[in-house]
Amino acid sequence: ANNAEGSLSGTLGDPSLATIPTGGVTRAEGDALFSQAGDEVDFELIAGFETRTSRNVIAQTRTGRTDNVVLAGAHLDSVYAGINDNGTGSAGLLETAIQLGGAPDVDNAVRFAWWGAEELGLHGSTEYVRSLDFEQQLDIALYLNFDMIGSPNAGYFVLDGDGSEGLSAPGPYGSAQIEQAFVDYFSDGGVETEGSDFSGRSDYAEFIAVGIPSGGLFTGAEGLKTEEQAEKWGGVAGEAYDPNYHFPEDDLGNVDRVALERNAKAVAYVTAAYGESTETVNG
Ligand code: PHE
Ligand code: ZN
Ligand code: ZN
Ligand code: ZN
Fold it and tell me: Where is each Peptidase M28 domain found (predicted)?
């Protein structure tokens, strides 16, 4: 978890065990897949499950208040290659960490987290939050989530900190303020965003569950772009924001580089601004 200069302090998260599907296919004893190595038949594999160890990778600046931490995360695991989901969020976060450096002049410590096993049920982030005691949870000022930020038919969505649908996010001086910081950043750059509900489908879920204000960016998955959205954002109406979502075709070609650049800059700007102050963030 160290950067090239080795100046970020890094830790490997505690390994968390999760029982995960290995393909969802029930395989019978005598199946060719079992006989190839001449191994004993594993009971858990027969049921289509095995137990694997997954890790989070966490790095934190050496400067800044550690009782008012700005935590930014992206899941590192994927289905197939997972370039948009979630190489984009992981890379945007990594570039932010590298550019910020390990010992930047920040007032609040910035902690970067690359989560494991999100696709299998938000395991890495959930285990992480649960591993913290109440005081350690209180030391986290806010959580920023980046899951899919370069969808090929991109929407510009900001997690809706004051919405009424989905999980209710902590507010009023929490999630709604974070949403506003992203909205202002994009609007200064001439991009009109829309809110995206905290559906519970990404790594913010456990942070919200324990009352930590959260926000983040998302360029869309299997949802269909509307005519109105195509007019303001470009792209193709009636098609999915990411037609290759969770398919093998989510490869290096599956990224809108303009959307990725805009979003990655928003990741960097808002993360670094909260590193300076969590009182207000404005352009
Ligand atoms: N968390 C989803 C995934 O990694 C992506 C997603 C986020 C889809 C939010 C819908 C809404 O597959
Ligand atoms: Zn996914
Ligand atoms: Zn994802
Ligand atoms: Zn809102």
Answer: 56-270
